[in-house]
Design brief:
six-stranded mixed beta sheet, 176 residues, single chain, three-stranded antiparallel beta sheet, binds guanosine-5'-monophosphate, 3 helices, alpha/beta, Rossmann fold, 9 strands
C-alpha cells in the first residue's frame, strides 16, 4: 500500500487529540497523586504523544527513551520485536509508565512489560498508549490508559509514520 498526502483522511483531529490527551493526563495525575514517575517513551512513534502528555503531568517525573521495532514492511507487523536500544536505568521501586504510540498485535507491549518485570521489581507498572487497535491483537494485553480506538486501518500522523514520513502531522490520518 502506498500512502500519498492527498489521499489522507482525518480520523482524529488536532483539537480532538489535544482534549483527549489532557483527559488521559488527568487520570494519570489522579492515579499517581504526586508520586515520582519514570516515563519510558518508546521511540520513534510515541515521541509526539509523550512530549504532549508529560507537559500535563504534575508529579516529579524523569523521561527515558528506548527504541524497539516490530514492523517488517511499511504497513504490516513482522510478528517479532527487535530491541534496537533498550538501555534503562535502575527501575527497582519506581513507578514506571510506558508511553507507546499504538497497541496493534500487542507483541511490543507484551515484550516490554515482560522485559521490565524480568529485570526489575518496580513499585508500579502502567502502560499508556495513544491508540488501541484491538481488532488485530495477537496476544492478551491491554493498555491501562489510551486515548482513541482504531479499527483495522493503517494510520499515520502524531508520531506514527509511513516509511518514515508523516510523523509531523498534528492529526491522525488514514487512507480510505
Ligand atoms: P505491535 O507490536 O502491537 O503489533 O505493534 C506496535 C508497533 O507497530 C507500534 O509501536 C507502531 O510503531 C507500529 N504500528 C502498528 N499499527 C500501526 C499503524 O496503524 N500505523 C503505524 N504508522 N504504525 C503502526
Amino acid at each position: 500500500m502506498e500512502i500519498k498526502f492527498e489521499d489522507l483522511k482525518i480520523l482524529y483531529s488536532k483539537e480532538q487529540i489535544e482534549k483527549k490527551v489532557a483527559e488521559v493526563a488527568e487520570k494519570l495525575n489522579d492515579f499517581y497523586k504526586g508520586e515520582e514517575v519514570v516515563a519510558v517513551c518508546v521511540l520513534k512513534g510515541a515521541v509526539v504523544f509523550a512530549v504532549d502528555l508529560v507537559r500535563h503531568l504534575d508529579m516529579p517525573l524523569k523521561m527515558e527513551f528506548i527504541r524497539l521495532s516490530s514492523y517488517g514492511s511499511s504497513t504490516t507487523s513482522s510478528g517479532k520485536v527487535n530491541a534496537v536500544d533498550i538501555k534503562l536505568p535502575d527501575l527497582n521501586d519506581k513507578n514506571v509508565l510506558i508511553i507507546e504510540d499504538i497497541v496493534d498485535t500487542g507483541l511490543t507491549a507484551k515484550f516490554l512489560i515482560d522485559f521490565i518485570n524480568m529485570n526489575f521489581h518496580v513499585k508500579s507498572l502502567k502502560f499508556c498508549s495513544f491508540l488501541d487497535k484491538k481488532i488485530t491483537r495477537k496476544v492478551d494485553v491491554e493498555p491501562d490508559y489510551y486515548c482513541f480506538d482504531v479499527d483495522d486501518k493503517f494510520v499515520v500522523g502524531y508520531g506514527l509514520d509511513y516509511d518514515g514520513y508523516y510523523r509531523n502531522l498534528p492529526y491522525i490520518g488514514y487512507k480510505e
